[in-house]
Amino acid sequence: MERDGSISIWFFIGICLLVDGVLIFAAGLYQLSHPPVHPVVLASLHANVWWGAVLAVSGVLCMWQVAPWRHGSKK
């Protein structure tokens, strides 16, 4: 996937997934400690905590698969 010293687009997608996942996870943890006055119907499932964790883990895995320092130079 890497050519001429360039970095794969999937590495940057992994970074985006990781950042979004951390932000959503942090918002979910904040909502756990400060519950809203009028919660939504399925608030007890804490979907933002779960999906934030899933996004963060998938971002790390995506970055790890195509990390430039793992592949070295292919000359």
Write the layout of secondary structure elements.
Blueprint: H1 9-33, H2 47-65, H3 68-71
Helix pairs in contact: 1-2
What would your notes on this structure say?
- With 75 residues, the protein is mainly alpha-helical.
- It has a domain at 21-71.
- 64% of the residues lie in helices and 0% in strands.
- The chain contains three helices and no strands.
CA-atom Rg in angstroms: 17 Å
Largest sheet: none
- Written as H for each helix and E for each strand, in order along the chain, the element string is HHH
What share of the residues does DSSP label as strand, in percent?
Answer: under 5%
Give the helix proportion (percent range): 55-70%
**Terminal residue distance:** 14 Å
| Structural classification | mainly alpha
Overall mean pLDDT score?
Answer: 90
Regions with pLDDT < 50 over 5+ consecutive residues?
none
